[in-house]
Amino acid sequence: MAERRLSHAYMLIGPEGPARDEAARRLSAALLCPAAEPPCGVCRDCRKVLSGVHPDVIAIGRQEGDKGLHREILVDQIRAAAADAAVAPNEAARKVYVIAQADRMNAQAQNALLKVLEDPPGHACFILCAASAGALLPTVRSRCVRAADTGDMGAGAAGTELPELVRGYLEAAASGDTAELTMFCMLRMKLDREDTEGFAAGVKAAVCDMLCGRRPDMGLGRERLFRMAALMDKTEDYLRHNVSPKQIFGVLAVETLR
Ligand SMILES: [Zn+2]
Predict the structure, then answer these.
(1) Is it the case that residue 162 has pLDDT exceeding 90?
(2) How far apart are CA 237 and CA 108, in angstroms?
(3) What's the gap in Å between 34 CA and the centre of ligand 1?
(4) Do 167 and 118 share a structural domain?
């Protein structure tokens, strides 16, 4: 894998909530994804990160104590992360530590983090999420790249019109209506190979944009999007093995809503 030039620490500034969490997930995926234009949204690393199960994405948050959640992220947690960061990644080329409420680190914890950021292990990256950059020590801030504010993210490709064939398929899938989807597929059985190839590539691109939050997902949801990406991989495979578009759309009619 070609080594991309990466910074070791990022700040995601924005109000606490799903948009900021999603931005942190996408940034984590971008840091681990081996594709030329990460995050591709469909590789093994992306899928695991976006599902929240990648072993090399480590969440650091306030811990549960005797009297409920601690008010602050404690220095011991940062020291533990620093020790863990010295160990090589499990699967990906690097490890990402996501501090979901970096503004909850006390001064001691921030100073411990600063030590790591001053001399980070080559494979470790940190993502600091905070409501405002002012809550972080200037010394910590100066070590971080400030990513686009989470309020501004996710606009991207949403405005571009999808090809009619791709939109039709996604709409039929989103409807969850087997009859509608079957009808859609039946009417496409006469497509030629080239159009079918374009169709599969178009669906993959749209699914990828949806997974990365650059396009509204039409209510398809992450799991269905993953399955559709896999189904399009299979479609491309079929085409390489000279399976006819007629048979391929027959398979899609059955498997899309499974
Ligand atoms: Zn990827």
Answers:
(1) no
(2) 54
(3) 6
(4) no
Average pLDDT score, the chain:
88
Gap between the Cα atoms of 6 and 54, Å rounded: 20
How many angstroms does the Cα of residue 92 sit away from the middle of ligand 1? 11
Cα 75 to ligand 1 centroid, rounded to whole Å: 33
Residue 4 counted as domain residue: no
Q: Are residues 138 and 169 in the same domain?
A: no
Tell me the CA distances in angstroms from 142 to 77, 114, 191, one per residue in order.
Answer: 22, 10, 56
- For residues 49 and 76, state if they share a domain: yes
* Ligand 1 center from residue 63 Cα (angstroms): 31
Distance (Å, rounded) from C-alpha 142 to C-alpha 193? 54
Of 119, 153, 187, the last residue of a domain is: 153
Q: Which domain holds residue 78?
A: 9-153
Q: Rounded to two decimals, what is the model's pTM?
A: 0.64
Looking at the structure, tell me whether residues 14 and 124 fall in a common domain: yes
For residue 159, name the pLDDT band (cuts at 50, 70, 90).
low
Q: What is the pLDDT of residues 18-55, one digit of tens each?
A: 888 988 998 899 889 998 778 888 899 999 999 999 99
Distance of CA 152 from the midpoint of ligand 1 (Å): 22
